[in-house]
Amino acid sequence: MGHLFELHDVHVADGDQQILRGVDLQVNERGITVVQGPSGSGKSTLLRLLNRLEVASSGSITFRGDDLMDLDPIELRRRVGMVFQRPTPFPGTVSDNLLAADPLLDDVGIAALMDRVGLPVDLVERDAMVLSGGEAQRMCMARTLATGCEVLLADECTSSLDAAATSAIEATARALAADGDTVVWVTHDEGQADRLADHRVRVEEGRVVD
Fold first, then answer.
1. Could you list the residue range(s) of the whole structural domain that residue 92 is in?
2. How far apart are CA 200 and CA 192, in angstroms?
3. 210 three-class SS
């Protein structure tokens, strides 16, 4: 199995505060890599480094062998998409949201994306701003996938959802992994990590400890 990302001696500082300290890490291609750790440990910062929403203070990060700093950040973010802790629907319908990511999508493509994230196709003309939390998060996941991304980053994306919505999002992530996609998932929930992880990374006090 190849390595999608490789991090070598990565440090991230914010003023005098050291957020990540000398991280060495290889992220496997395919499957779900779960990044665990307590709040404030640096796991979300680690995730955001992977599509240059954060930039390392020192050290190197490669994606498929290319130095991240040599890649155009907009193109990188199309290849390495991200779903955040809280869903961020755009004004308009669900269809409008998906077309914002790929204006060339036709009805068949939209229906395929909806199926991929476990949403009924009859929601496509629903106002995205009135979706439930779980529906909105899955729509945001579909919108990210519409870019054709090779990797999906998920940052505590179920932490504000109820148990039913969380279960649906987890099922979507497992289905994506079964289809050959790569998911990197941040959580502090040990039970969720047990349910999802093909590979595990543990971060504590800015260091990868396991």
1. 3-208
2. 12
3. coil
